[in-house]
Amino acid sequence: MKDKTKWMILIVMAHLVNIAVAQTIDTVKWRIHYATSFRKTEESKKPRQDERILDIGHTVSRFYSLWEGRYQEVRDSVIKKGGQLQDVMNAYSKILYPRSYSYYIVFKNYPQKGKLTFTDDLIKNYIYQEAMETPQWQMVSGDTLLAGNRCQKAITSFRGRTWTAWFTPEIPISDGPWKLYGLPGLILQATDDKGYFNFKCIQIEKGKNQPIIFQNKKYISCSRKQLNQLYIKKAKDPRGLMKDMGMGESKGWGPDGKPLVYKPKRAILMDE
């Protein structure tokens, strides 16, 4: 069994005993869709794809994967009805969205103004909170059109990466994908200088007061540094990480009956 498939099954199993309770923390004024590409390791031959959503409310914003969010909704629905692992996997097979295996969620101005909450699933659910840090942007010449909106260009060095962003003053909201914000307009595209991460707006919708939710799970509190260490461990030795999390030994077997040998990889961290 491939490590990615095994990892997915372990996450499903972990959630069988950890049903999330959704808490409404705001309502949607704007919903921004971003076509997203990203690389998790230096050894990745091609970037992974995702469609991510930025829900902007009256005070809070939530940035999450549309694709993986749909899988979570289906999984939780099946579990609440008493379904087991095979029931969840059967329901997954009927979802039309591809998998991105990107589970992180970023909340800005939550649980209070000036605070950022970050959650992710690595078999277990992790959470950290930190003060929102405004990137120090430099305006540079250049303009383009994105999703029908005129955009200006800006760059910043933020958390160990240089980002180029395109923002639109036509939507005067200081927000954007991931942890990026602080410009006099909504960020519609952002790319790091190495091309590891790219967010490009493909659709803008006016909100219809849909709920912005926070999933109340059994989170493990940690720091950003501690979670980054888990990302590094997962790339270098995922079976060792599973063992550390109490999931036991995990070995894959090839068609020749011999144990699969996992080659350590180097994690690419979005922020350091």
Question: What's a concise summary of this model?
Answer:
It is built from five helices and 14 strands.
Characterization of the model:
- The chain is of the alpha+beta class.
- The chain has a domain at 3-133 and 196-216.
- Helix content is 21%, strand content 38%.
- The chain contains 5 helices and 14 strands.
- The strands form 2 sheets. Strands 8-9-10-11-12-2-3-4-5-6-7-14 form a 12-stranded mixed β-sheet. A two-stranded antiparallel sheet has the order 1-13.
Fold blueprint:
Elements lengths: L2 H14 L4 E7 L2 E9 L9 E9 L4 E5 H15 L4 H8 L12 E4 L6 E8 L1 E8 L6 E9 L2 E10 L2 E8 L17 E7 L4 E10 L4 E6 L3 E2 L2 H13 L1 H7 L28
Parallel strand pairs: 7-14
Antiparallel strand pairs: 1-13, 2-3, 2-12, 3-4, 4-5, 5-6, 6-7, 8-9, 9-10, 10-11, 11-12
Shape: globular
Biggest sheet character: 12 strands, mixed
Order of helices and strands: HEEEEHHEEEEEEEEEEHH
Strand order of the largest sheet: 8-9-10-11-12-2-3-4-5-6-7-14
Uncertain stretches of 5 or more adjacent residues: none
Identify the notable features of this structure and list them briefly.
single chain; about 270 residues; alpha+beta; two-stranded antiparallel ribbon; about 20% helix; globular
